Inverse folding.
C-alpha cells in the first residue's frame, strides 16, 4: 500500500497528470469489476474551501481524484484489509471514500459495532458470527443505523439476543434479503413471527433452532413468500405440517435443507411439487423410509442436487423409486447410505445429466460400479471415500468411460493397485483434484504416473502412501498445483521438496505431517520457490529448526502454521514468523519446548490477526500468556501443561482476553479459579473444555536424565 500511495504522489507532483494516473489504474492486471455502487465521474473532490491563484500550489493533489477513481483503487485492495486501512489514513478525502466504499462489517466483539456503524453508513452486510455475545441493544443500533442499506445479517454463532432484537432489524431494514440465525437454540416461535415480517427476505438459515415449531415456520411461510433458500437443518420442532406450509406458500424456493428433521414421505411429496426446486438436502431424515418413497408419484423435473447421505432406513427399492421421478439430477450424494449394487445403480440410467456422484462410506460391489460406468458417461466428480469393496476392476471401468473426470476421491480404498492408477492417469488427464490417502497397495512407481500424465492437477492428497522423491520429481510438470498433502510419507526428503519448489510456484497449502525425512533445506526451498504459501503443516517433522521458520517468514501470505512436536524450534523461529507473516491467524506450537515468553511478547506485538493458538507444553509463564491476551482477535486457546502458569496468571489472562470463544485447560486448574470469574467469562460467550490428561515428559528430558 505504501508503494501504491508513493507512486500516486510521484505521478501527481511529477507532472504526469491525471491522464497517466487513470490509464495506470485501468491498464494493469485484471481486477474486480467496479462495484455496482460506483457513480459516474464527478467533478474533482475538494473537502475544504479551495483558494485559487497564488495558493493553488498548496492544495492536496489527492483531492482532485474523483470518487469513481478512488473506488477503483479500493476495489483492488478488497482482499487486503491492512492496505485499505492505510489508504484511509492518507488524507481526508481518502478517509471519506473508504467509509462510503465499505459494504461489509465483520467485528470480533459486538461492543465495537456502534463506532463502526457511525464510520461506515453504507454497509450492506453485517457479519456478527465472530461475536460470541450479541445483545438486543446491539441489534437495535444495527436496525437504526442501517435502515436503507442493510441487506444481510449473520448471527450464526452468536448468542444473547431475543425476538425483540430480530424484530427491530426486520422492521427498520426493509431491504433485508438474507438472515443467518443458525445455532440460535434459544429462539422460539416469537422470533419466527418477527422474521415473517421481512417481506423481501430471500435467504434464511435456521439450523439448530430447535424451539421453532410448525406455528413459527408457518408465520415465515406466509410472510416471506420471496424465499429462494431455506435451511431447517436440525429443527426438530418442525413436522410435515410446517414443511407443507412452506411448500404451499414459498413457490420461489430453489434450495431447501430438511436434514435431521422429522419430515416423512408425506411432507416430501409436497416438497417435490415446488416448481423451481433445484437443491434438496435430506441428510439423516430417519422418518423417510422405502415405503414412503415407493408411494411418491409427482415428478420433480427441476431438481438438480439431491443429498441423501446418512439415510439409513432407505434401501435400493425406495431410492430407485425416488431417482425415477428426479431425472434432471446433476449431483447425487448417497454417502453412508445403502449398499451400492447392480439393482440400485440400474436406476442411474435415467439420470442422463448426472455429473457428480458421492458414495462415501458405502459398501460397493464391482457390479454396481460397472453399472454406474455404463449408465453415467458424463461424470466430472466421483467420490468413493472410505468405501469398502472398491476393486481395480470396478474403479477402472468408471474412469475409462468417464474421461472428463476432474475430481476423484478414493481415500482409504485399500484394495486398489497400480492397475487402477494406470487407468486413472491414462484416461482422466483433465483431473484437477485427486485424493487418495492411505491407498497402501499402490507402489512408488504407480504414483509417478500421476505427475507424468495429469498436468492440470491443482489439489493432490497422497497422505500415508509409498511416495518417494522420484514421485515428487514427477510432479514437476504439475505447474498449477496449489494444494499438496504428503503427510506420513516416510520416503520423501529434501530432494523431492526441492523439485516441487522449483516447478510449483502456485503452491498455497503444503501438508508434511510426520514426514520424518524432511529437513531445513527442503523447507527453505519451498519458502523461496512458493512465495504464495498460506498454509503449512510441519507437525512432528523433528529435524525442523528455526532456520525453516526464518525462511517461511518470507511468505507474507502465510496464515496457518502447525509445528507441534518440533523440539528443535525455539522462540527465535516463532519471532521470525510473527514479524514476517502479518496475516497469521492459526498457530500450533504444542510441544515446542524451547518457545518461551519472548516469543509471546513479539506475537502480541505483530500478530494482531491471530485467532487460534495451541501453547501446550511450551515454556510459557504468566507474563507470556498475559501479553498474548492483548491480541484482540484471539478466540481459541489450548493451554495444557504450562509449568510456569499459575492460577492467578490464568485468571488474569482470561479476564483480559475479551474475545475468547473456546479454551482448553487442564482440569487441575478448575478448582483453583474462582467460580464467579469462570461464569463471567462464559457469559461473554466462551466455552471451557477441561482436559484430564497427564503430563508427558519431553523426550529430550528423558535423554538428559539417562545421561546423568
Amino acid at each position: 500500500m505504501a508503494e501504491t500511495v508513493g507512486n500516486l504522489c510521484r505521478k501527481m507532483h511529477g507532472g504526469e497528470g491525471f491522464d497517466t494516473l487513470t490509464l495506470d489504474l485501468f491498464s494493469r492486471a485484471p481486477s474486480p469489476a467496479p462495484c455496482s455502487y460506483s457513480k459516474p465521474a464527478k467533478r474533482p473532490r475538494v473537502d475544504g474551501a479551495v483558494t485559487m491563484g497564488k495558493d493553488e500550489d498548496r492544495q492536496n493533489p489527492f483531492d482532485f481524484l474523483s470518487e469513481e477513481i478512488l473506488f477503483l483503487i479500493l476495489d483492488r485492495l478488497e482482499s487486503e484489509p491492512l492496505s485499505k486501512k492505510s489508504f484511509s489514513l492518507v488524507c481526508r478525502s481518502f478517509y471519506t471514500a473508504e467509509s462510503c466504499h465499505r459494504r461489509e462489517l465483520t467485528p470480533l466483539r459486538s461492543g465495537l459495532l456502534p463506532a463502526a456503524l457511525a464510520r461506515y453508513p453504507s454497509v450492506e452486510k453485517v457479519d456478527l458470527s465472530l461475536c460470541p455475545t450479541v445483545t438486543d441493544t446491539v441489534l437495535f443500533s444495527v436496525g437504526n443505523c442501517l435502515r436503507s442499506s442493510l441487506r444481510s445479517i449473520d448471527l450464526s454463532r452468536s448468542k444473547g439476543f431475543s425476538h425483540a432484537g430480530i424484530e427491530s432489524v426486520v422492521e427498520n431494514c426493509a431491504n433485508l434479503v438474507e438472515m443467518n440465525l443458525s445455532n440460535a437454540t434459544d429462539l422460539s416461535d416469537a422470533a419466527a413471527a418477527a422474521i415473517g415480517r421481512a417481506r423481501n427476505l430471500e435467504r434464511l438459515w435456521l439450523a439448530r433452532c430447535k424451539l421453532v415449531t410448525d406455528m413459527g415456520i408457518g408465520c415465515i411461510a406466509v410472510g416471506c413468500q420471496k424465499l429462494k433458500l431455506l435451511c431447517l437443518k436440525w429443527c426438530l420442532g418442525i413436522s410435515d405440517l410446517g414443511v407443507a406450509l412452506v411448500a404451499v406458500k414459498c413457490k420461489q424456493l430453489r434450495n431447501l435443507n430438511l436434514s435431521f428433521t422429522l419430515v416423512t414421505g408425506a411432507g416430501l411429496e409436497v416438497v417435490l411439487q415446488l416448481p423451481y426446486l433445484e437443491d434438496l438436502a435430506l441428510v439423516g431424515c430417519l422418518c423417510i423410509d422405502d415405503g414412503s418413497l415407493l408411494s411418491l408419484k409427482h415428478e420433480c423435473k427441476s431438481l438438480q442436487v439431491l443429498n441423501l447421505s446418512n439415510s439409513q432406513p432407505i434401501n435400493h427399492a425406495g431410492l430407485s423409486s425416488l431417482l425415477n421421478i428426479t431425472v434432471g439430477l446433476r449431483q447425487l450424494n448417497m454417502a453412508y447410505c445403502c449398499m451400492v449394487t447392480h439393482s440400485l445403480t440400474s436406476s442411474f440410467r435415467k439420470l442422463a445429466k448426472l455429473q457428480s456422484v458421492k458414495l462415501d462410506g458405502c459398501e460397493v460391489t464391482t457390479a454396481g460400479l460397472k453399472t454406474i460406468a455404463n449408465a453415467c458417461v458424463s461424470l466430472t466428480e466421483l467420490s468413493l471415500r472410505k468405501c469398502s469393496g472398491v476393486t481395480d476392476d470396478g474403479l477402472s471401468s468408471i474412469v475409462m468411460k468417464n474421461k472428463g473426470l476432474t475430481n476423484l476421491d478414493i481415500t482409504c480404498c485399500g484394495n486398489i493397485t497400480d492397475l487402477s492408477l494406470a487407468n486413472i492417469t491414462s484416461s482422466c488427464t483433465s483431473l484437477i483434484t485427486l485424493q487418495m490417502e492411505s491407498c497402501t497397495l499402490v507402489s512408488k512407481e504407480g504414483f509417478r504416473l500421476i505427475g507424468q500424465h495429469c498436468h492440470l492437477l491443482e489439489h493432490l492428497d497422497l497422505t500415508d502412501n509409498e511416495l518417494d522423491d522420484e514421485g515428487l520429481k514427477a510432479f514437476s510438470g504439475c505447474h498449477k498445483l496449489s494444494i499438496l498433502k504428503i503427510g506420513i510419507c516416510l520416503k520423501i526428503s529434501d530432494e523431492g521438496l526441492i523439485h516441487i519448489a522449483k516447478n510449483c510456484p502456485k503452491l498455497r497449502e503444503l501438508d508434511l505431517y510426520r514426514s520424518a525425512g524432511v529437513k531445513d533445506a527442503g523447507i527453505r526451498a519451498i519458502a523461496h520457490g512458493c512465495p504464495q504459501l498460506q498454509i503449512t503443516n510441519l507437525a512432528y517433522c523433528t529435524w525442523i529448526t528455526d532456520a525453516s521458520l526464518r525462511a517461511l517468514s518470507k511468505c507474507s501470505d502465510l496464515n496457518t502454521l502447525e509445528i507441534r512436536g518440533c523440539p528443535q524450534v525455539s522462540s527465535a523461529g516463532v519471532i521470525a514468523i510473527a514479524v514476517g507473516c502479518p496475516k497469521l491467524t492459526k498457530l500450533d506450537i504444542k510441544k515446542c519446548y524451547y518457545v518461551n515468553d519472548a516469543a509471546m511478547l513479539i506475537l502480541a506485538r505483530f500478530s494482531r490477526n491471530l485467532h487460534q493458538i495451541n501453547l501446550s507444553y511450551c515454556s510459557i509463564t504468566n507474563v507470556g500468556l498475559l501479553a498474548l491476551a492483548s491480541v484482540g482477535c484471539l478466540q481459541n486457546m489450548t493451554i495444557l501443561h504450562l509449568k510456569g502458569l499459575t492460577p492467578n496468571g490464568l485468571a488474569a489472562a482470561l479476564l483480559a482476553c475479551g474475545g475468547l470463544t473456546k479454551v482448553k485447560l487442564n482440569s487441575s486448574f478448575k478448582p483453583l479459579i474462582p467460580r464467579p470469574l469462570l461464569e463471567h467469562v462464559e457469559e461473554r460467550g466462551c466455552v471451557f473444555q477441561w482436559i484430564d490428561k497427564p503430563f508427558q515428559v519431553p523426550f529430550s528430558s528423558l535423554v538428559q536424565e539417562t545421561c546423568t
